[in-house]
Amino acid sequence: MYKTPFLITEPVGNNAFSYDTRANKQISVPAMVVGTFRDLKLGNTVVFEEEDEYGVLRSCYGLENFVRMEWKGIPLVVFDNHNHALYFWYEAQHQGILGAQNTLVHIDEHSDLWENENDILETDLVSVHHFTNYRCNVGNYSQPALRQGIIEKVLRIEDSIGMGKYGSYMRWSGELLILNLDLDFFAKELDYIPFEDKKRVILHFASQAHLITVATSPFFIDQQRALDMFGRVFEL
Questions:
Q1: Of 8, 161, 218, 226, which sits most exposed with the smallest number of CB within 10 A?
Q2: CB count in 10 Å sphere of residue 13
Q3: The whole model's pTM is what?
Q4: Model confidence over 33-83: pLDDT tens digits?
Q5: Which of helix, strand or coil describes residue 188?
Q6: Do 25 and 8 form a contact (C-beta atoms < 8 A)?
């Protein structure tokens, strides 16, 4: 999956946002490459398009490619829109990296827990890939995973309160952790939280994780800022 880029042209998934009022009726999904931080580059195709709270249509460009890499031996995947994390959780489960039930550490300015009327009925990777791109969006991909069972527990860190609550959490023996990081945690409106505090909490969980999924979230944070922050946190 994600071997080649593709277009979503129907009003489904992330393409459903403001679909009826947009002249452009499609968004693109990049291909995956295996690489390093140096392979993370800004793309030139629209991956998300929606009217903002002021009614202004925003056409957002994401990554040239999704990048699969490692951080200190831990599998790490970087992509743009956050719903893609769902596919990589199941991929890691198929590879034996994750178990049947896992703990999700969700560090994100948003909960991503919107209701989703769709359920994951088939967990083969072809089906999950289709579900991720055509039955989920950036805000509602978590609920199907919770209902299906691949995610058993969620630790939500959306602000300084969440950092205080879970910032010293240590996984118990046998607990499989996924660090699900959205780089919009470094959006300017959250600059009241010191960078070093954010970095400390992120690396605290990254060092315990079995899988790290990272979204650059083009609608919510400038993409160059997102990549710069990612590099600073993980010292890449």
A1: 161
A2: 23
A3: 0.97
A4: 999 999 999 999 999 999 998 899 999 999 999 999 999 999 999 999 999
A5: helix
A6: no
